[in-house]
Amino acid sequence: MRKIMIGAAVSVCALVIAAGAGFFLISQKGGMSGPSHGVIVFVVGEASVVKSDGKTAPARPKDEIVSGDTVKTGKGSIVTVQIADQGNVKVNENTVLAFTSVFDKGRTGLVVSQGSIYSKIKKMEKSSVYEVKTPVYVAAVRGTEFLASYDGVKGSVNVADGKVGVVSSPKAGEAAPAAVSAEEIVSAKEGAVVFAEKKASEPDVQRYSLSRAQMLELQKHSMYTDVDASAVDTATKLDSMKQELQKKESEIDAQITVENNMSPLDKLRRDNRPLTMVYLRDGSQIAGSMVSQDESNMRLDTGEGIIVLPVAEIIRRMPIK
């Protein structure tokens, strides 16, 4: 697992702009006009919408979502919200998602206090922003697909496509950074974990590469964000769409089961990676696929992660069929 240091927090009024290798944070001025609401396009199970005045009602397709609304889902329930021209967000089970702003002058701000959401956001104008906040991190994008989660202790971001800028949430008295560095960008097929409580010697954020099973899980989420309001504008269409998505989800679950039952070396073989058995001076043997080697160290992918072996400790290597 690769680790990086993350700087101070993103301010509430931050706009993320892609420029070169990084995402730059600037105060929002002006913005684009357009519809300042979302619409629920898909509901599975029991879910509710809490309006800004505190009134609660069941979540139903075609219901509008505006700034100040909160969507709550129970066990096994799903809600997909189409946000104007920005894209869709899937609210997963056991989640509390507050819409602090919904395409307000091009800005959408979401707060996940519990659970997870999957966002599929189109490439946006420079005057637009899409930001997801949790108690431990802020994620800002300019067009991407990603899963944002918070379990009460740690938050995670898994990126299916594009890039996400991730910084730790603001602490009392902290100032917002002038920019997010390239090291604070999580790219496709990567993930990041942010801890609420950490040891002094640990970085705020830990990054890692997503496994094939994790990417398949993201594919399942993505299906529900492809739903368009026009495709489910009647009860018959909605029921048909539910059946279609459930069938596709079962097919992906079968692939995940196969993936999880494969041995680490079989996963490397499937990817046509040459395998090597490495014999060490202490008598141990480690199998894997060599990633790189210099005068000091060899990096070996064991199928469960990349380890570093001192060259001085290696006595021989033999290919594995």
Features:
single chain, about 325 residues, mainly beta, 18-stranded mixed β-sheet
Fraction in helix: 10-25%
- Global outline: globular
Kindly report how far apart the N and C termini lie.
27 Å
Major β-sheet profile? 18 strands, mixed
**Tally of separate helices:** 3
Low-confidence runs of at least 5 consecutive residues: 1-34
Strand content: over 45%
How is the quaternary structure best described?
A: single chain
- The pLDDT mean sits at 84
Structural class: mainly beta
Order of helices and strands: EEEEEEEEEEEEEEEEEEEEEHHHEEEEE
What is the CA-based Rg, rounded? 22 Å
Describe the structure in your own words.
The protein is mainly β and 321 residues long. The protein has three helices and 26 strands. It has an 18-stranded mixed sheet that branches. The protein has a five-stranded antiparallel sheet with strand order 25-24-23-22-26. A three-stranded antiparallel sheet has the order 2-3-18, with no helix packed on it. Residues 1-34 have low confidence and may be disordered.
